[in-house]
Structures are given as structure tokens and as C-alpha cells.
Amino acid sequence: MTSSRRIMNVDDANRFNALYISPVLQRMIKDLLVPHITMLEKMENATELTMIQCTVPRPSSDWWPIYSFKTYACDKVDIRGVLVLTHNYIKSMPPELKMLNDTFKVFADNQISRYNLAENDIETCNAYHLANKMFSDMYVFVVYYINHLQRLQENRRKKLMKACRPNKIKARIELLIYDQYIYSEHQKALRRLKRVTQNACSLFGLAEKLFIE
Fold it and tell me: Cα–Cα distance between 68 and 168 in angstroms, integer?
């Protein structure tokens, strides 16, 4: 026997200790946030540094450290490719998060006012305020990280120009160190963004799936 699939309602939310939201918001989160969890995890897990050559250079050699990064899209790119792939993916998120945040704020304010939650259920009232701040913080973080990616690319471009001059071994080592720094920052940012996205979905009982059987 097959069961009908339905949107989570207030009783479902209470049963799963989730904060109730309207079907419209549930659908928005399913369409806008849930897919990002899978993609961010894929980006985080697939990105890794591979050192191909890192021998000590001879003073007379025009030496370059040879290394590459593996991503979800291709097996061998430089760190600039990693940044471009990341930027191209997350640049669509700010308008989505802004729309989600604005829609949630209207819904939360209506719930708080309609049921006088500030007096009748301060815990739920605070939960709605917390969720609203979480969406706002997500938006701010993504906008910041997009700008940060652009700054990293510009700084790297300057270091690369120095490293491309003949026999600039020190500059090339500095570029390698900077690329490793970018890689570390990139991984931390992806983990943070994935975690806050998971938390947002979990808060409404949507971490794994939208529908309740």
C-alpha cells in the first residue's frame, strides 16, 4: 500500500521538534537550500591538493613547484580554477537567500503577531527570531565570501606576475604557500557554508527530505 505524500504541517513540526513554517516556505527551502547541501559537500570532498614536484631547487635552475588541485568538475586545475568554479557556483546564492530571508521574515512576524507568541510562547518566538537572523547571516556570509574570492584572485594574480619573471624562485615558493593558504581558506568556507545550510534545513525538519510519509 502506498501512502500519500504531504507537506509537513504544525503537528508534524511538533512531532519532529521542528519549527513550523508555511508550505510556501517549505517549498522555497526545498528548492533553494536543500540542493546546495549536496553540491557544497561534493565541492568540499572533491577538492584536494596534489603535489607533483616539490624538490629543492638548484641555484642555477629556473625552478617551478608543480602542483594541481582536483575538483568536482575536473581532475587537474590550478587554484585559480578552484576559485572560479566556486565563484561561479555561489554567485547565484545571494538573491536566493535574500528572497528566502524576506519571505521568512514576513511569515515569522505574522506568526508572532497572530498568536501573540511574545507572551504566549516566548520559546517559539525566540526561535523565529533566531531563524530569521540565521537566514540574514547566511546572506551576509555568502556576499562576503564572493567578494573575498575576488580579492584572493586579484592578490594571486599579482603574486603570479612576480613568479613568472625568470629565476624568481622565492616568488614561486611564496606563490605555492599562498595557494595552499587559499586552499585551506576555501575548504573552511565551504564547510561553514554547508554546515549553516544544513542547520537551516534541520531547524525546519528538512535536513534530509521535505516530505513526511
Answer: 20
pTM attached to this predicted model: 0.81
Overall domain count for the chain: 1
Burial (Cβ within 10 Å: 0-12, 13-18, ≥19) of residue 132 = middle
- 66-70 vs 48-53, strand pairing mode: antiparallel
- Non-local (6+) Cβ contacts of 86 within 8 A are 43, 149, 186, 190
Q: What is the pLDDT of residue 59?
A: 61
Is residue 2 included in any domain, yes or no?
no
- % helix / strand / coil in the chain, to the nearest 5? 70, 5, 25
> Could you read off the pLDDT of 130-182 as tens digits, one per residue?
889 889 999 999 999 999 999 999 999 999 999 999 888 899 999 999 999 99
5 falls within a domain:
no
Residue 81 in any domain: the answer is yes
